[in-house]
Amino acid sequence: MRLRGVLPRLTTPNACWSCRGPVPAAEPFCPTCKAVQPPGQADHFSRLGFARTFDLDPKLVERRYFELQRKLHPDRFATRSPKERAVSQAQATSLNEAYETLMDPLRRAAYLLKLSGIETIGDGKTVADPALLMEAMEMREALAEARTPAEVDSVVSGARRDAEAATAQLSRDFASEDLEAAKKTTLRLTYLDKLIDDARARRLNVA
Amino acid sequence: MAYSEKVIDHYNNPRNVGSLDKGAEDVGTGLVGAPACGDVMKLQIKVSADGIIQDAKFKTFGCGSAIASSSLATEWIKGKSIDQAETIKNTEIAQHLALPPVKIHCSVLAEDAIKAAIADYRAKAGAKPKAAE
Predict the structure, then answer these.
(1) What is the CATH number of the domain that holds A43?
(2) How many domains does chain A have?
(3) Which chain A residues contact residue B105 at CB under 8 A?
(4) Which among A111, A124, A126 is positioned nearest to A186, based on CA atoms?
(5) Last residue of a domain, one of A48, A72, A103
(6) What would the 3-class secondary structure string for B24-77 be?
(7) What is residue A121's predicted lDDT score, i.e. its pLDDT?
(8) Structural domain of A166
(9) How confident is the model at residue B133 (pLDDT cuts 50, 70, 90)?
């Protein structure tokens, strides 16, 4: 786990490893000597220059990612010192992780909840939400009974519509700061995404 | 990851797959899920007037360990009283099936499913539940 929680240190500048000058958090380069800095503990949102919000424009996420990626790609450091190569490698890894988390609605929602201290998918607990589980059971049964590619496709398109609706619901849940509702919707989306994944495998078997 | 022989046996020949009449007075239904893997498990019990589990059925969508855990759970609870069935621990299921640490939650799911089915039966029968765990 890369995330180590929200620390007050986030706002205080770190010292540059090369020139000891101050470096603001989430700043990939030293403002004084331009040396690449370790990724540190910035969260995925601030790493890409966003506030902690569910509603992100994927095009903007992509653009910021590629801008940073261009500056931080290990290839650019191929002729530098081993220290700089290692640091840029760590930056690139953190950047990819931030990008993948922010681009996927489910991962973004789970991460936002995690930043608020709410575990969703990784807590090993069982859920006993009857409506949610009944829906999951019915979708699973429909998928298990699907015998032709067309039948599988119909289960998938139903699940895709539901997943889109759940994503829209998450946007409202977070906008109204209803984290309990957001947790429920996140769990629902977990089941839907998993079903869509499994259906893809099933599609190959019935084809 | 290698599954134990017992897991493979339950996975290939699951015991007691199916459904009981959810609406019947003497049937208790437990529905639980593990969000981490998108697993969903339904476990049902048919209980006699003197509190003995006469029949148990399950339906699980999930990995091999989840299927084996629920299959084993139905085998174990059949013929037991609901009070006895309630004492089954996930650790016993995990140990019997030799589940690796990453699959322990599958046995937790089975234990929770047994408890949920008993709770549902008790609620229906209007019987006083035992002291909460």
Answers:
(1) 1.10.287.110
(2) 2
(3) 124, 126
(4) A111
(5) A103
(6) CCCEEEEEEEECCCCEEEEEEEEECCCCEEEEEEEEEECCHHHHHHHHHHHHHH
(7) 67
(8) 125-206
(9) very low
List of domains in chain B: 5-125 (3.90.1010.10)
Q: Does A6 contact chain B (CB < 8 Å)?
A: no
Same-domain status, A134 and A179: yes
Tell me the C-alpha distance between A88 and B119, whole Å: 56
Confidence label for A201 from pLDDT (cuts 50, 70 and 90): confident
Q: What is the ipTM of this complex?
A: 0.78
pLDDT, one tens digit per residue, over A12-62 is 678 899 899 998 888 899 999 999 999 888 899 999 999 999 999 999 999
Interface test with B, best of A120, A126, A186 (most B CBs within 10 A): A126
Would residue A37 count as lying in a domain?
A: yes
Res A173: pLDDT: 97
Q: Do B112 and A126 touch (CB under 8 A)?
A: yes
- Residues A90, A161 within the same domain: no
Phi and psi at residue B39, in whole multiples of 5°?
-80, 145
**B63 has catalytic annotation:** no
> Does A189 fall in a domain?
yes
Cβ within 8 Å, pair B61-A120: no
Question: Which chain B residues have a beta carbon less than 8 Å from that of A129?
Answer: 33
CA separation for the pair A159, B14 (Å, rounded): 28
